[in-house]
Specification:
With 137 residues, the chain is α+β, with helices and mostly antiparallel strands. The protein has 2 helices and 8 strands. Strands 1, 2, 3, 4, 5, 6, 7 and 8 form an 8-stranded antiparallel sheet that branches. Strand 5 and strand 6 form a beta hairpin. Helix 1 packs across helix 2. The radius of gyration is 17 Å and the shape is elongated. The N terminus is likely disordered.
């Protein structure tokens, strides 16, 4: 095991982020509603800290007799006058017939990022998403 407790494996994945032209409380409520609508179970909601943690339902795994589940961690922050930054991390856990138990991996790319951000934009209304070239971003 490495001194940092990672077992010699570093799998740091940068969160994917977007900005929305709405105040943090409205974006927070919108993201909670989006995740619930998508079937996630919320395990943590800390509005003041801007943190949401949620888990998808159990899904059939890639191999017979296995199951998988997705976990989402969202961090929201004020980024200006009525601008909110949203960072997402999606992690996949798979459990099955192997001896090691559940295997978990943070995903740097996955369609769930786009699905959540698109649903949040639809929830907040047209023009809420701020492209990277937007003034004030």
């Amino acid at each position: 095991m490495a001194p940092d407790g990672t077992g010699g494996r570093l799998d740091r994945v940068a969160p994917q982020g977007e900005y929305f032209a709405q105040a943090k409380p409205e974006v927070f409520v919108g993201l909670v509603e989006v995740l619930e609508t998508m079937g996630y179970t919320l395990s943590r909601q800390a509005a003041a800290q801007g943190i949401i943690e949620a888990a998808s339902p159990l899904l059939e795994g890639r191999q017979p007799g296995t199951s998988r589940q997705f976990y989402v961690t969202a961090r929201l922050r004020d980024a200006g006058d009525a601008i909110t930054g949203v960072e997402l991390l999606v992690r996949e856990a798979e459990e099955g017939v192997f001896k090691a138990g559940a295997v978990s991996e943070t995903l740097s790319k996955h369609g769930r990022y786009d699905s959540i951000f698109e649903a949040l934009e639809a929830k907040l209304g047209p023009g809420s998403w701020m492209p990277p070239s937007s003034p004030g971003r």
